[in-house]
Amino acid sequence: MFTLSPSDFAFLWRDCRRCYWRKVVLGRPRPSGGLPGVFTTIDRLMKQWHADGGARRLAPNAPWSRLMGTDLRLQSRAITIDGLATGAVIDGRADAVVQWEDAAFGVIDYKTSGSGARAIGRYTEQLHGYAYAAERAAPRARTFVPVTRLALLVFEPTSFTDADDGVQLGGRLAWHEIPRDMPRFEGFLREVLTVLNGAEPAPREGCAFCTPP
Description:
Largest sheet: 7 strands, mixed
Oligomer: single chain
Radius of gyration: 19 Å
CATH architecture: Alpha-Beta Complex
Helix content: 25-40%
Number of strands: 7
Number of domains: 1
């Protein structure tokens, strides 16, 4: 049974199928560069800010919501596809799960960028992966049903000013909803599992990790 991380859908899968195959099938990930420290710090502060705020609107165009938790591990039950020998589970940590006024749930991913609207396409499968795991949870895993909305909460830096004890980074929060389309995501899962059940893909031209210099 393969283990699929939703965060890999946004970058590794898109960047190089061979590197993705080697990570999932062989357990050989790329050397980790990690996120730059400033982004990790902003992500942590956004989670803390969200956790301290109670029920509210997270951005001017965001709906009212109540936080269910941040950094929540979501694990799906087994995914099997006819004609493929090996199935998979989705296992990852969502930045935040919230509950809307109608008692349904939403999955939110925090980002730091000035291009949130342009990034929606990149993160569509990632957020759908969290939603899939939340609704089709493994035994004893956290479950949230139904997940009706997916969104990016994007911190967009706009100022760098003096403060009493140093300097201060300022900005605004932008809310970008991602249309939910689970049938399309299930087709994406079939594509991913078809690749994983096949032979090792050829190196992608230009990939620094799998193409010899």
